[in-house]
Backbone:
């Protein structure tokens, strides 16, 4: 019996095409998948036949649900070497896409979370459908929104990136397009026609997407944008909690209730990550920060506990440690964010 490759790469009519092909796992990324994508992108970078790149997925369950967190947790329970090797490769893929000299189009039809965000946000054209569900839910598993979250999230309008990172909120296409997370909307029934048009005009994916894009409809989040910008503008999680409580509206109290279910350590790590990422001028510097951070966070109690709750026991009853924000000190954060020695640090390809 032949085994299907987990990523299919080929050149079709001037387009370098990458299809994620691990549908039973909603295309969760592993190191080999990242290596396959890197190999193809490097080969196509200097190939004049390839005018642009298209990344899509097989099946209908979603684009990519993230990374292989079970493997990362098992590695983190030891010396984290396998987890760090995965992060190094994944982040090199993210950076390669971010700096790629040819247009990249990503069709995110369905679930796009975590690692899936990392391989779609760097694309020039990012197409959502009515089936798209976008989220960075890492604070719920003791992690932080990596794969470039420190770069992309603070560059969203107002404080929406902070809100998304801390709450793990799930958005549909009307909101993702309104925020600029995705550049275009097309109904899922039109995706194959869109791909056919892209193949007919491989050099101009944005022109094709502009012509075929539909209206995603009104953005539900618009009603809360003022509150998000006001209540999530602080530089400490404690101040955000206090502002939400003082506001007292049903919406604010619901956000506070959600935040109280998340890892206190992850909330503080994620807020510092985003505030730091906002000050950086190079995507590579952000990825170096996230690599140093990731190799340490996966060894913490909260990440191990988060994966236990979500993947192993599925009991939805995490026992975070520290159990509240006051237990997460600035010294703890400083240690997690400390730069790595030069011989261990992340670097682009």
Residues:
């Amino acid at each position: 019996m032949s085994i299907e490759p987990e990523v299919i790469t080929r050149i079709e009519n001037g387009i370098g095409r990458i299809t994620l092909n691990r549908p039973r796992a909603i295309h969760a990324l592993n190191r080999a998948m990242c290596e396959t994508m890197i190999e193809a992108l490097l080969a196509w970078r200097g190939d004049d036949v390839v005018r642009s790149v298209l990344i899509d997925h097989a099946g209908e369950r979603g684009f990519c649900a993230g990374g292989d967190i079970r493997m990362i947790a098992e590695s983190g329970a030891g010396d984290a070497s396998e987890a760090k090797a995965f992060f190094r490769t994944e982040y090199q893929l993210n950076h390669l896409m971010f700096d790629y000299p040819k247009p990249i189009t990503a069709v995110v039809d369905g679930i796009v979370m975590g690692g899936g965000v990392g391989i779609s946000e760097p694309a020039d054209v990012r197409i959502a459908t009515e089936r798209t569900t976008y989220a960075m839910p890492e604070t719920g598993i003791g992690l932080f929104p990596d794969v470039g979250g420190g770069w992309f999230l603070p560059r969203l309008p107002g404080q929406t990136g902070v809100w998304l990172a801390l709450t793990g909120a799930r958005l549909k296409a009307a909101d993702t397009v309104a925020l600029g997370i995705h550049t275009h909307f097309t109904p899922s029934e039109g995706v194959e026609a869109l791909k056919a048009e892209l193949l007919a005009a491989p050099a101009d994916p944005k022109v094709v997407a502009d012509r075929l894009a539909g209206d995603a409809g009104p953005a539900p989040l618009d009603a809360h944008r003022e509150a998000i910008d006001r209540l999530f503008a602080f530089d400490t999680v404690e101040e955000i909690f206090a502002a939400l409580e003082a506001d007292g509206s049903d919406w604010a109290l619901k956000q506070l209730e959600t935040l109280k279910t998340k890892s206190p350590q992850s909330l503080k790590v994620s807020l510092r990550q985003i505030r730091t990422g906002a000050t950086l001028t190079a995507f590579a510097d952000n990825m170096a920060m996230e690599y140093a951070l990731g190799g340490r966070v996966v060894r913490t109690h909260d990440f191990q506990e988060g994966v236990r709750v979500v993947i192993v026991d599925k009991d939805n009853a995490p026992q975070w440690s520290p159990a509240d924000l006051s237990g997460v000190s600035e010294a703890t954060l400083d240690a997690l964010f400390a730069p790595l020695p030069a011989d261990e640090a992340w670097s682009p390809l």
Remarks:
- The two ends are 36 Å apart (CA to CA).
- The longest strand covers residues 7-12.
